[in-house]
Specification:
Blueprint lengths: L2 E6 L5 E4 L10 E7 L4 H13 L4 H10 L4 H10 L5 H14 L4 H11 L1
Helix pairs in contact: 1-2, 1-4
């Protein structure tokens, strides 16, 4: 594990910390552990963060940093068995807010390359 990301409850920023943030802080909405060798961690942070209202520009920075592309999203969908409700909600927001695609167009494209 290389660190943690947390969603700031007021600014909705996704913030990196080397040490686990205090969950009882009024400023911490959610905490995720981050292992840079595990792409599922990156996807979980981005998708769940989106579902919880994370700041879109910050999410876009992380998507670029971690190269979370459309093709990678298809691979992630193939690998994750039983994604959380937050992740499922986040996929729709990833398609519409990050990829600028209509939800139906995203799923149609996923099906075409599956």
């Amino acid at each position: 594990m290389t660190g943690y990301y947390y969603l700031h409850s007021e600014t909705k920023d996704l913030i990196f910390k080397k040490f686990e943030p205090e969950m009882d802080s009024d400023f911490v909405q959610k905490v995720w552990s981050m292992d840079t060798t595990n792409r599922v961690d990156a996807w979980t942070i981005v998708l769940e963060g989106l579902a919880l209202g994370a700041e879109i520009e910050r999410v876009k920075e992380l998507v670029d940093k971690w190269s979370l592309t459309f093709d990678d999203s298809v691979q992630m969908l193939k690998r994750i068995a039983g994604p959380s409700k937050l992740m499922r909600d986040g996929v729709v927001l990833y398609a519409t807010k990050i990829l600028n695609m209509e939800e139906e167009a995203y799923w149609d494209k996923v099906k075409s390359v599956w």
